[in-house]
Write a structure and sequence with these properties.
alpha/beta; TIM Barrel
């Protein structure tokens, strides 16, 4: 049985598995066949969404240069999980839109000018134009755009950050009709207070938007972050098995992705049924050891 915080009863938990995020910064290339086996195993688990690959320049992220080849070998028969591909520019979005198997395009929109330049080689204002172009492509091709508000809980560059700034850019996305926004703790600097404040401000005021949490964390801070987001109404959580990965553009080597198994442990603790196939998840955990040992 699903149970919810009394102030936010409507939306069940959604779990998004992010093997793409876990793989992208690895220097040793993971063979295409290995990626395919791992992703096909993850598809058996029953995640809401699988962030499986990225259509970006292979010079920027060589690890994901085989995304189209991987996609062609995924077993999507009788699978409810939807596929999400990350794109960094309009050209990547145009490519992703040609694949009927992909439901979501994800774009990292940083509210830190410094990081937006580092991550996508463009300014915030130019990236806003890109978002509009991507949204138009998604509408045309029957896809949905997921925008990640990166550096959503602060940045290490001294760029301005506050709740009003977050709300400003969320409002711009809302004007364009974007309905899934994931706030990204890109370098793991968010704390329970900032997480609670941001989500508590945004979620009640914009109930038509699905807000997610893409949290990076250390082993001793994960639970307080998940708890703060959940208690503030967030029901969409990104994770990566065993916390592999991070953001290579941010040099956040001390923090990793939110471990999926930790999110599941939290949901079990508060008696929320994740709806996942636990046997398939256990097999995925074991397979991850081999996949990432090669990286």
């Amino acid at each position: 049985m699903l149970v919810f915080h009394e102030n936010y009863p409507l939306m069940p938990a959604k779990l998004i598995e992010c093997p793409r995020d876990a793989m992208q910064g690895l220097h040793h290339f993971i063979e295409t066949s290995t990626k395919v086996r791992y992703l096909n195993q993850l598809l058996k688990v029953g995640f809401d969404t699988l962030d499986f690959g990225s259509f970006v320049s292979p010079k920027a992220i060589p690890q994901l240069r085989d995304t189209a080849e991987v996609l062609s070998q995924l077993d999507l028969n009788s699978v409810q999980t939807k596929l999400l591909a990350i794109v960094a520019n309009t050209r990547g979005a145009e490519t992703a839109c040609t694949f009927k198997e992909i439901s979501y395009l994800g774009f990292p929109f940083s509210i830190s000018e410094t990081f937006q330049q580092r991550n996508t080689n463009s300014s915030i204002q130019d990236s806003l134009v890109t978002v509009a172009e991507m949204q138009n492509l998604c509408v045309k091709h029957g896809k949905e755009l997921v925008v990640y508000i990166s550096m959503g809980f602060g940045n290490p560059y001294g760029d301005v950050w506050n709740a009003e700034l977050v709300a400003k850019w969320v409002g711009e996305m809302d004007k364009m009709g974007i309905r899934i926004l994931s706030l990204s703790d890109t370098i793991g600097m968010a704390d329970p207070k900032s997480i609670s404040y941001i989500f508590s401000e945004l979620i009640p005021s914009m109930p038509h938007i699905e807000f997610g949490a893409h949290l990076h964390t250390t082993p001793d801070t994960w639970e307080e972050k998940v708890s703060a987001a959940w208690d503030s109404g967030c029901r969409r959580f990104d994770g990566a098995i065993k916390g592999y990965g991070g953001c290579p553009m941010a040099s956040d080597s001390l923090t990793g992705n939110m471990p999926t198994e930790n999110v599941l442990a939290f949901l079990e603790k508060i008696e929320v049924n994740s709806g996942l196939n636990q046997d398939a998840f256990a097999k995925s955990m074991l397979m991850a050891n081999d996949v990432f040992a090669q990286g």
